[in-house]
C-alpha cells in the first residue's frame, strides 16, 4: 500500500470518528441530562465519546499534514491555490479552536456543541462533495454560519424539551 492510500484511509477513519463522535456527544449529553444530573456512569460514557472524537481529530490532522507533505514532495501544489481547500482547512481550524474554548469553558456549551457538530459535518460534506475546486465557493461559509445558528436553536429546543435544568460543578 502506498503513502497516498494510507493517508486517504487515515483521513476517512478520522472523519468518521469525528463526525460519529460529535453526533454521539450530543445524543449522550441529552440522555445524560434528562434528570438534570450527570451520573458517574454517564460521565464515563461522555469521556469515552470525547476520546473517540479526539482520536478522530488527531487522525484527520495527521493525515492532513501527510497530504500537505506528500503534495509538496511530489510538487503537486495546484490545490494550495483552491479556495475550497482553504475553506476546508479553516473548518478544521474552527474545530480545534472550538474544542479549546469548550474545554476552557469560554464558550456556552450549546454554542460550542452547535459549532462542533456543524463543523464536523461540514468537513465531511465538503470533503466528499467538493473534491475539486468550486467556481463560486463563497456560498460555503454563508451556509456554514447559517447552519451553526440553526443547529444552535434546534439544540436549545431539544435541551429545553428533554433535559432538566442542571447546575455544572
UniProtKB/TrEMBL annotation:
<feature type="transmembrane region" description="Helical">
    <location>
        <begin position="79"/>
        <end position="102"/>
    </location>
</feature>
<keyword id="KW-0812">Transmembrane</keyword>
<keyword id="KW-0472">Membrane</keyword>
<feature type="transmembrane region" description="Helical">
    <location>
        <begin position="136"/>
        <end position="155"/>
    </location>
</feature>
<protein>
    <recommendedName>
        <fullName>DUF2269 domain-containing protein</fullName>
    </recommendedName>
</protein>
<feature type="transmembrane region" description="Helical">
    <location>
        <begin position="6"/>
        <end position="30"/>
    </location>
</feature>
<keyword id="KW-1133">Transmembrane helix</keyword>
<feature type="transmembrane region" description="Helical">
    <location>
        <begin position="109"/>
        <end position="130"/>
    </location>
</feature>
<feature type="transmembrane region" description="Helical">
    <location>
        <begin position="51"/>
        <end position="73"/>
    </location>
</feature>
Amino acid at each position: 500500500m502506498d503513502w497516498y492510500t494510507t493517508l486517504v484511509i487515515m483521513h476517512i477513519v478520522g472523519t468518521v470518528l469525528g463526525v460519529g463522535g460529535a453526533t454521539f456527544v450530543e445524543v449522550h449529553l441529552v440522555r445524560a441530562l434528562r434528570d438534570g444530573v450527570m451520573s458517574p456512569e454517564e460521565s464515563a460514557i461522555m469521556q469515552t465519546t470525547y476520546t473517540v472524537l479526539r482520536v478522530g481529530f488527531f487522525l484527520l490532522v495527521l493525515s492532513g499534514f501527510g497530504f500537505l507533505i506528500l503534495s509538496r514532495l511530489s510538487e503537486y501544489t495546484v490545490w494550495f491555490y483552491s479556495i475550497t481547500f482553504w475553506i476546508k482547512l479553516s473548518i478544521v481550524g474552527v474545530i480545534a479552536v472550538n474544542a479549546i474554548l469548550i474545554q476552557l469553558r469560554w464558550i456556552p456549551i450549546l454554542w460550542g456543541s452547535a459549532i462542533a457538530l456543524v463543523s464536523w459535518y461540514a468537513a465531511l460534506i465538503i470533503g466528499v462533495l467538493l473534491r475539486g475546486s468550486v467556481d463560486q465557493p463563497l456560498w460555503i461559509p454563508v451556509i456554514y454560519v447559517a447552519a451553526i445558528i440553526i443547529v444552535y436553536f434546534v439544540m436549545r429546543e431539544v435541551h429545553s424539551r428533554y433535559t432538566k435544568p442542571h447546575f455544572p460543578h
